[in-house]
Amino acid sequence: MKKLIVCSALAAFALSTQAASAAEFYIVRDTTTKKCTVVDTKPTTTTVVGDGVYKTKVEAETAIKTTKICTER
């Protein structure tokens, strides 16, 4: 019985930790400066570019380099 309680507690902790660390990153382009940046909150006032939501900041930063609108000058 104790094993069941301990296993349940560990599973609940693992799931809550995973959910808390599940961040979302977006590539946004400022319409005035035409500069792309990575943000961790869903934008409401700027234009989202790229493939939408990225799981890591590194993934989003890498995508900026290959997103056509972000590499145009």
Explain this structure to me?
The chain is globular and about 65 Å long. The chain contains 3 helices and 3 strands; from the N terminus they run αβββαα. By secondary structure, it is an alpha+beta fold. It has a domain at 23-73. The chain has helices at 2-20, 57-66, 68-71; strands spanning 25-29, 36-39, 47-54.
Give the CA-based shape: globular
What is the β-strand count? Answer: 3
How far the N terminus sits from the C terminus, by CA atoms, comes to 65 Å
How many helices in DSSP terms? 3
Oligomer: single chain
Percent range for helical residues? 40-55%
- Percentage of residues in DSSP E strands: 15-25%
Helix-strand string: HEEEHH
Uncertain spans, ≥5 residues at pLDDT below 50? 13-20
Largest sheet: 3 strands, antiparallel
Strand order of the largest sheet: 2-1-3
Calculate Rg over CA atoms: 18 Å
Structural class: alpha+beta
Mean pLDDT: 76
List the topology elements:
Blueprint lengths: L1 H19 L4 E5 L6 E4 L7 E8 L2 H10 L1 H4 L2
Antiparallel strand pairs: 1-2, 1-3
Task: Offer a quick outline of the entry.
The chain has a domain at 23-73. It has three helices and three strands; from the N terminus they run H-E-E-E-H-H.
Name the descriptors.
alpha+beta; 3 helices; three-stranded antiparallel beta sheet; 73 residues; globular
